[in-house]
Amino acid sequence: MTAQIINGKEIAEKKKVQIAEEVKLLKAKGVTPGLAVILVGNNHASRTYVSNKQKTCEELGMYSLLIELPEETPEVELLSKIEELNGDSKIHGILVQLPLPEHIDEKKVIETITPAKDVDGFHPINIGRMMAGQNAFLPCTPFGIMVLLEESGISISGKNAVVVGRSNIVGKPVGQLLLNQNATVTYCHSRTKDLAVHTSQADILIAAVGIPNFIRAEHVKEGAVVIDVGINRNDEGKLCGDVAFNEVREKAGYITPVPKGVGPMTITMLMYNTLKSAKETLR
Ligand code: GUN
């Protein structure tokens, strides 16, 4: 079998058109969705991500506010900036770009963002609501994966889903979202014995480990849906995922490429969450 490629770029573009239309309607009612992004320090990759977020905001007609703070910014100063944004009615979403400099406590920062503007879905209140299946901001990458599955017509209920990776940002929440939709979920990680025993049972396999070519054909069941969350550089400096794409595509039923797979969905769902937050101010 040669897998059908799930085109994340195309699906993201389609979603962005829908979001832009809703932004227009909301603006007609006097509300412009606004996203504040805080960047502390000079991490090169972070700067690129932040600039992409700003560009996408503008492309969709949203208000975007970039707050750049120097590397040595004291933690209290960052927390007071967040509190100011919590009370700013032009701002519906607050995102503090991670990682932060070492002297700043990430947990304190996340917990200072009001859950109502936590468009990253990282606040414990939103994590708890997500677990309980309540209305919540869903973390953008896991949310984007669920949209990719839905848009590709892949049913989840009753399927065996195996998540490789257990990060707070991707692995843990994507397993939870799959469980919420009635998948039977298995988590694998660096201490898992006999990985292939588990992954070869997967109807839906999510690779989120951050190791190039970690998932090989031998790990994958014939016809499985393979979602590659990895963004790595291989020995030649070329962008690659966690899945050995060329061999796995010959065995899988569906597969996401890297780039143009999961990546474009993350920013799109951030825009979706900012719009959702802005809409909720009208309720
Ligand atoms: N750094 C890398 N990915 C993310 C993300 O999704 N949100 C934030 N805030 N920082 C990140």
Structure write-up:
The protein is of the alpha/beta class. It has 2 domains: 31-119, 3-Layer(aba) Sandwich (Rossmann fold); 139-263, 3-Layer(aba) Sandwich (Rossmann fold), CATH 3.40.50. It is built from 10 helices and 11 strands. The chain has helices at 8-28, 44-59, 75-86, 106-112, 124-131, 140-151, 171-180, 195-199, 245-248, 263-280, and strands spanning 4-5, 34-40, 63-69, 93-96, 160-164, 184-188, 204-207, 225-228, 232-233, 239-240, 254-255. The protein has a 6-stranded parallel β-sheet. Helix 7 links the parallel strand 5 (160-164) and strand 6. Helix 1 (8-28) packs parallel to helix 10 and helix 6 (140-151) crosses helix 10 (263-280). The chain is globular and about 50 Å long. It starts with a strand and ends with a helix. The model has no long low-confidence stretch (mean pLDDT 97). Residues 95-98, 120, 140 line the site of guanine (GUN). Guanine binds next to strand 4.
Characterize this entry briefly:
With 283 residues, this protein is of the alpha/beta class. It is 40% helix and 16% strand. Strands 1-11-8-7-5-6 form a 6-stranded parallel beta sheet. A 3-stranded parallel beta sheet has the order 3-2-4, with helices on both faces. Strands 9-10 form a two-stranded antiparallel ribbon.
